[in-house]
Amino acid sequence: MKKNAIIISATLLLIISCKKETKDTVGEVVVEASYAPKEFDASKFESKIDSLIAQMTLEEKIGMLHGNSMFTTGGVERLGIPELKMADGPLGVREEISRDNWSPAGWNNDFATYYPAGGGLSATWNTDLAYLNGNSVGEETRARGKDMLLSPAINIIRTPLGGRTYEYFSEDPFLNKKISVPFIIGLQDNDVMACVKHYAANNQETSRDFVDVLIDERTLREIYLPAYQAAVMEANAYSLMGAYNKFRGDYLCENDYMLNKILREEWGFKGVVVSDWAAVHSTVKTLENGLDIEMGTPKPFNEFFLADKLIAAAKAGEISEEEINKHVKRILTVLFQVKAIDGKDRVEGSIATEEHYQDAYKIASESVVLLKNDNNVLPLKLDGIKTIAVIGNNAMKKNALGGFGAGVKTKREITPLEGLKNRLPESVTINYAEGYLERYTKNENNQKTAVTLEGPVTVEELDEAMLQEAIEAAKKSDITIIFAGSNRDYETEASDRKDLSLPFGQKAFIDKIMAVNPNTIVVMIAGAPFDIEDISKKSKALVWSWFNGSEGGNALADVLLGNVNPSGRLPWTMPKRLEDSPAHATNSFPGNESVTYAEGILVGYRWFDTKNIEPLYPFGYGLSYTNFEFSDLKTDKEVYSKSDIIEVTFNLKNTGKMDGKEVAQLYVSKPESKIERAAQELKGFKKVLVKNGTSEKITIQLPTKELTYYNVDKKQWMVEPGTYKLKLGKSSRDIVTETIITIK
Ligand code: BGC
Questions:
Q1: Residue 327 neighbours by CB under 8 Å, 6+ apart
Q2: Which range among 15-29, 34-48, 79-93, 456-470 shows the weakest confidence by mean pLDDT?
Q3: How many CB atoms lie within 10 A of CB 162?
Q4: Does residue 274 line the site of ligand 1, with CB under 6 A?
Q5: Residues designated as active site
Q6: pTM of this prediction?
Q7: What is 176-201 written as a DSSP string?
Q8: Is residue 205 lining ligand 1, measured as CB closer than 6 Å?
Q9: Can you list the domains of the chain with their CATH numbers?
């Protein structure tokens, strides 16, 4: 059994019995956590560390500052200092990679649980599931004998085209931090380090190796940094990964402002900063400006910037041994902290267990978003149903591996087709047709995925015979479900997509199927927005699932059949057109040598709501098989001081016939503000189970410090006095009730 025991009731209600605590505030920054991180007191290990350092040679010290294999840094055996062992994430613990090249090591004991990708987890809007995910994958990290998992990936989703949108959590800084913090705490509860990546402002894959990102200070603080800040100050993250790109002229792995000033001086970070793989460009500057560990892709490891070159620099007096000691000390601190040195009772962990597959199931089952449901065609009514056509390459496509970047080698990945087979009664026959092929133009090495700067290049023509087979299946079946979308070869690290269109000729394909069976349900499997306006208009029901982990197919089938009431909500805005979304409307993506984030603070729904642009599906949106009503919105007072906590209460009634979970979302607007503001900002949410026909009284605590903005001149978070509107609703575009408070 895990620490912080998790009890699951039949209705999937998760009750986390772990210690809950609200910390105090630091300066003007909110430090409020519902999960308590382990104590991280670096001074505790100081005398032992000093004595170790005193015994180390220069070469031994520097050996700890760079990769000595693909995923380890050097240890000092004679002093009992082990290698620091990393495993890649975030979809789960990546298979073992060879020590000196990218090929798999060929182990047969490195099968792991494939957890839903970041978009799926954040679509649950369930902070308890974020903890569960972190804790579960933390146990797997330990079972593989690792000290650090390269996870979570928490960059803000600035453009829907971003190749890593599926891995990241949200376009919204508040949802981002509320999912990140419990995830990190859960992970680190297992005596392993989270490596929170990619710090920071790494919001596109195009030119990621060199692009200079220019963001104004207020936007940086309010949009791009809050989740990292919370990772450090609320979750005590032990490590962060420096990103590839530049920020205001300097690479992020040698960026004094980001690493020394903000991360360490302002936030008090005591852990280590690891470079992204081959993201280091200098020796002395890198070390002095705050990076601790250089990792990279194979070349002789002693040729890394923080290897022989650093030894030479030290010997030439270009860098002091004291500076080197500082970094060694940080690494030793985190090794002590996770009991890699001197550790008694270190968590042993477990991997690919049924319990962990079920953890993945719980997340997946709360992540599926019901976008449209005309005449309640869902859940499927099976009375009199003899045949169901299951159509589409995505009904069978696996996504644990794929594309460029880390995947998971797993023994279990239930596809949507398998999920339906598992869950449908034997009396129902499935007529499966693949329908369209996942096809790419091949590159000169005959590789399937031609990763270009414009994204993978796909073949759009349909295969006539396959199309006919699918049409026949749809014609002869009582119900047709198309599984469309993309996959992890198409949405991939290292390239952004070129546009929002569905690849492989799917739009024409779906049209042709719908023409023969107008009662078609479409299920999208994808991690990022697509142009689905037309499909949305024509389909009877539209469901969104993700790269959804080992049990994704079972969870999806349970939602389609009504064994689970859908409760996922979009963690980003689905635009009608690419040009509507902020980075594209301002023509500031992807830049060339540099990119200026011209939309400023108006990222995601902040842009759509402020500019009055109608999205296809708004941020926070998702339907349920039941209906909810909000009433009696109240606050405990009318006037608050700048350090108060606003207690917002309301009733939530389930007026339908099925138990269900609603995500109550609290947005805040500041009328007549003296500064530029978004029309509204998410400042609280709560996911609650309400049994059919009953009501729950809900409280959301909103610290007034959450209402601060970053004052660039004063370099401070400040609350503007005056009235604020608190708006409660079901999505950013479905505000049901409002109230007003005043801050003195
Ligand atoms: C990615 C990281 C990953 C690292 C190691 C990089 O290309 O950006 O997210 O952890 O490779 O595989």
A1: 65, 272, 287, 292, 293
A2: 15-29
A3: 28
A4: no
A5: 276
A6: 0.95
A7: HHHHHHHHHHHHHTTS-EEEEEEES-
A8: no
A9: 42-337 (3.20.20.300), 368-572 (3.40.50.1700), 626-743 (2.60.40.10)
